[in-house]
Write a structure and sequence with these properties.
Length: 335
């Protein structure tokens, strides 16, 4: 059903965009919003296939994941292997240097203050929400995923997959260009992939942010604890939860990445009474959470650059958000 609704809705929106483009560019552009929503959902299916959680058959998942990758502009095998690295070190202060967690890695306040003025400025620009969450995502999906420079030479299968995906993508876009015209192809494809990239990278980056999200050193990091306190429950309106494939239940996903997206909500309900205090974000709180770019080791909370400028670091959290009906428990969660 997810395959039918996601791909069906996506293709229907694209067809409408191509049909409307000769009459009105703006009407065609309006359809790029739901088209991008369906594409985000297709990316979640690809994500689940990469975690071997969508089907029981690994061969079927790899085939579906590769098909998804053509429309998401994201090489399946390469992204799958890189993303698995994220699931080994998320919110781990002593493993950030492994450079596999490009979406949520941060500096501590002390590390930031130790940088030169130029280094601080570069870090702020790179973490600025307008740059990190609006300007950069389209370039990552359009151009970054076309390259293999971030892949070790020993990853031969993954590097080959990038090349094959690029050839298939070029063939698809050139074919659409000959059928509908290259101006129409660009007017349809660019807005859709750009919007989907902005939403997708935004989701992955903010799901490990928020004032009450915890980061741990080597002595304290433990998988279950980091899942329930280092990943958020992004509580979205039902329609947005549907389009984002339930990825807002991110704490459950990290607790067990073999749970498919269509069972995350039920799993969340089953553990809620025993999960202790889980960082929760509403839609508005999630947008605001993008400003948290530093970890304050003294107060054990995430802070924004303005907190450093104002000297509001090293102080305990002013609040913590818990799920309704959940009693606060110890930060250490027993398996």
């Amino acid at each position: 059903m997810q395959i039918l609704t996601s791909f069906g809705g996506f293709f229907a929106c694209l067809a409408g965009m191509y049909l409307l483009y000769p009459e009105s560019f703006w009407l065609s552009l309006a359809l790029s919003v739901p088209a991008a929503g369906f594409l985000v959902r297709i990316f979640i299916i690809q994500h689940d296939c990469g975690h071997a959680s969508f089907f029981r058959s690994r061969r079927a998942m790899d085939a579906l994941g590769w098909v998804c990758s053509i429309f998401t502009y994201t090489p399946y095998s390469a992204w799958r292997r890189q993303h698995k690295g994220h699931h080994t070190i998320w919110n781990h202060l002593d493993r950030r240097q492994e450079d596999v967690d490009v979406y949520s890695t941060i500096l501590t306040v002390a590390e930031y203050q130790a940088l030169t003025p130029g280094g601080q400025r570069r870090y702020r620009i790179g973490r600025n929400p307008w740059v990190a969450n609006l300007l950069r995502p389209p370039f990552v999906f359009l151009f970054g995923h076309r390259l293999t420079r971030d892949l070790p030479k020993s990853w031969r299968r993954e590097r080959r997959d990038v090349a094959i995906t690029n050839v298939a993508l070029v063939a698809l876009l050139v074919g659409l260009g000959f059928i509908f015209g290259f101006d129409a192809m660009l007017a349809v494809q660019l807005p859709v992939i750009s919007l989907a990239a902005i939403v997708g990278i935004g989701l992955f980056s903010l799901q490990h942010r928020g004032e009450s999200v915890a980061w741990y050193g080597r002595a304290d990091w433990e998988s279950a604890t980091a899942s329930l306190h280092g990943a958020t429950y992004f509580r979205l309106p039902r329609v947005l939860q549907w389009f984002t494939g339930n990825i807002g239940f991110h704490h459950v996903h990290h607790l067990n990445h073999r749970i498919p997206n269509y069972r995350l909500e039920r799993s969340h309900q089953e553990i809620a009474s025993q999960a202790g205090q889980i960082p929760m974000l509403s839609l508005w709180a999630g947008i605001r959470a993008l400003r948290f770019s530093l970890w304050d080791e003294q107060s054990k909370r995430m802070v924004a650059f303005r907190d450093v400028r104002r000297g509001a670091v090293g102080k305990p959290m002013s609040f913590a958000v818990a799920l309704p009906g959940i009693e606060p428990q110890s930060a250490r969660v027993t398996r």
